[in-house]
Amino acid sequence: MAISKTVEGPQAGCAGVQSGMTLMLGGFGLCGIPECSIAELVKLGAKDLTCISNNAGVDDFGLGLLLQKRQIRKMISSYVGENDEFERQMLSGELEVDLIPQGSLAERCRAGGAGIPAFFTPAGYGTEVAEGKEVREFDGKPHILESALTADFAFVKAWKGDSAGNLVFKATARNFNPMMAMAGKITVAEVEELVPLGALDPNEIHLPGIFVQRIFQGAHYDKRIEQRTVQTRETA
Amino acid sequence: MLDKNGIAKRIAQEVRNGWYVNLGIGIPTLVANFIPEGMEVEFQSENGILGMGPFPMDGDEDADLINAGKQTITAMPGAVYFDSATSFAMIRGRHVQLTVLGAMEVAQNGDIANWKIPGKMVKGMGGAMDLVASAENIIVAMMHTNRAGASKLLPSCSLPLTGVGCVKRVVTNLAVMDIKDGAFHLVERAPGVTVQDIAAATAGKLVIPENVPEMNID
Q1: Do the Cβ atoms of A91 and B63 come within 8 Å?
Q2: C-alpha A130: how far from chain center
Q3: Taking CB atoms and an 8 Å limit, are A82 and B70 in contact across chains?
Q4: What gap in Å lies between CA B63 and CA B46, rounded to an integer?
Q5: Could you report the per-residue pLDDT of A96-123, keeping only the tens digit for each?
Q6: If exposure means fewest CB atoms within 10 Å of the residue's CB, which of A44, B131, B172, B207 is most exposed?
Q7: How far separated are the first and last CA of chain A, in Å rounded?
């Protein structure tokens, strides 16, 4: 019989998060972010968090909400360009920031979940990113050693899921969610639709439920768009 | 002199049938608009789509479907979505044939800087370092000079590097140049631009061949 991971909601999902912990949060920009868990983390008020997330949200949404309340001590991201409060806290030294190449960030999470402690990549060789890292040549090309990332909690967002924690993502909202789910000691998945066990075709599940410890259906999703870019019907 | 669309149009001429292409934010994004009809080309966006289509019609935008610049997009028939690790496996594994990206500075040895101005702009490198470290074919699309009028083609980069010795070709509003043997080699002039104009706007070592044809971008 399938193992049930279903919890009541974000409150039960976030239970156990404490100050000083390391969290992973899925999403690219505001696309595919765990909106309900972030709202709950703001309520919980845990501080001195290390957050691993590709981006840092915008001033009034996503991780920007945790930044506003000064709950984050350190961010590990690849791109943080959309958030003035972030830039202010970073330049003033309140916030520690580790910027790492996007592909290395994805692979470091994947490695963390896959039991691979480190790997060599060409990305960042000869740049600030390589400072203090072992360099080794393979096929005559220099590579740098990058270590795996794991987290006390990983918060991910999927389109559909079942009580076994199996997940299906929608379009480009998949992004970092699967690897972060793999790398969390406790992975909390929030879904738009929690479907009955057996309703998902096992051939079409994107993330096996073994990587998920808690799952709940979010009550509401804002799904904000950062750069609404459209063609007007007349000119098209 | 070319405008941004002109630069994109010239770069589109570099794209070959059957290629997977990653386009960066800004001028590179415009390249997709100038691919000849019928050419089999797929655009990859590193946030997790292959087969990216044009911007959606007003009202059809989907918050779950964006490109790496966080713009709403559409998916072409045959498109596929994937996670970020798979996306960079495509990039690092050299399954993408061409990368086009912008730059703040390019050096005559092929170094590129485009992610940080110390003390001023700290936004992060996004996927740029992975892209430039692995791609075999990297074209930089940018203006020849910065807003202050200073050359962006330099003997060596002054800003923190994104990648070393990786840029093969630069297309600017003034010229097409190849980078080899520690110098910019002038290949083509933009319409109405003289070799003297290009030399004056290039701080790095510029090799000027006998004959420098004008671009044909019509």
Answers
A1: no
A2: 23
A3: yes
A4: 17
A5: 999 999 999 999 999 999 999 999 999 9
A6: B207
A7: 54
Written as one letter, the residue type at B189 is R
DSSP string, B70-85: SBB-EEEEEEEE--HH
Q: Which of B68, B72, B126 faces A228 most closely, judged by CB atoms?
A: B72
* Both tokens assigned to B41: 């080309």
Interface of B with A in 162-201 (CB under 8 A): 162-164
What tokens does B169 get?
């070709």
pTM: 0.96
Question: pLDDT tens across B158-191, in order?
Answer: 999 999 999 999 999 999 999 999 999 999 999 9
Tokens of A23: 């969290």
Handedness of CA A227, B47, A98, A210 (dihedral sign): positive
Query: How far apart, in whole angstroms, are the C-alpha atoms of residue B140 and residue B41?
Result: 19
What tokens appear for B159 in the block? 């800003």
Strands B169-171 and B112-113: unpaired
Tens of pLDDT, residue by residue over A6-35, are: 999 999 999 999 999 999 999 999 999 999
Copy the structure tokens of residue A208: 């096996």
Q: Return the closest-CA partner of residue A14 out of A154, A182, A158.
A: A154
CB B49, CB B75: distance < 8 Å: yes
Q: Do B64 and A29 touch (CB under 8 A)?
A: no
pLDDT tens figures, B46-86: 999 999 999 999 999 999 999 999 999 999 999 999 999 99
From the CA of A6, how many Å to the nearest CA of chain B? 24
Written as one string, the DSSP assignment of B112-142 is: EE-SEETTTEE---TTHHHHHHH-SSEEEE-
Instruction: Tell me which of A127, A179, A224 to substitute to probe the interface with B (most B C-beta atoms closer than 10 Å).
Output: A127
Tokens, residue B38:
């019928």
Per residue, the 3-state secondary structure of A79-132, as one string, reads CCCCCHHHHHHHHCCCCEEEECCHHHHHHHHHHHHHCCCEEEECCCCCCHHHCC
Measured torsion, CA atoms of residues B69, B73, B76, B82, in degrees rounded to the nearest 10 = 50
Question: Minimal CA–CA distance to B139: which of B114, B182, B90, B172?
Answer: B172
DSSP helix/strand/coil, A167: strand
> What count of residues does chain B have?
218
Q: What whole-number distance in Å separates Cα of residue A115 and Cα of residue A117?
A: 6
Structure tokens at A193: 């639709």
C-alpha B59 chain-centroid distance: 30
Task: Check residue A210 and report its DSSP letter.
Answer: G
Q: Which residues have C-beta within 8 Å of that of residue A192, sequence separation ≥ 6?
A: A158, A159, A160, A170, A217, A218, A221
